[in-house]
Amino acid sequence: MALIYKPLSLLISVLGGMIAGALFKQVWKVVAGQDDAPDADDQEYTWRQVLVAAMVQGAIFGLVKAAIQRAGAQGVRKTTGHWPGDARRKRTKAHESSRS
Predict the structure, then answer these.
(1) pTM metric for this prediction
(2) Alpha carbon of 27 to those of 12, 55, 64, 88, 94: distances in Å?
(3) Taking the domains of the chain in order of start, what are their residue ranges?
(4) Helix, strand, coil % in the chain, rounded to nearest 5
(5) For site-directed labelling of 72, which of 8, 19, 42, 54 has its Cα 20 to 30 A away?
(6) What is the Rg, in whole angstroms, of the alpha carbon atoms belonging to the chain?
(7) pLDDT value at 87 more than 70
(8) How far apart, in whole angstroms, are the C-alpha atoms of residue 89 and residue 2?
């Protein structure tokens, strides 16, 4: 199960990053009216412009990542009947309780 889920999860994460990048570019065009977001080392932009762009980009990437991971986990559960990571969490809890 984990042997299939891990590589598939990695591939989906890469695709999610590409989707998030395209989504950010479109959002930035609408919000700022510019084709490209400011780079941190571009001196024509203020600190505020650079940090707002980074904040919006981070929020979009976080949202897309969470949505993709959640959908993938639900797909695995629907397919196999098991939530990914359950076995790992059980081992971690058992290890922590044995240390106490």
Answers:
(1) 0.74
(2) 22, 13, 13, 37, 45
(3) 2-99
(4) 80, 0, 20
(5) 54
(6) 19
(7) no
(8) 13
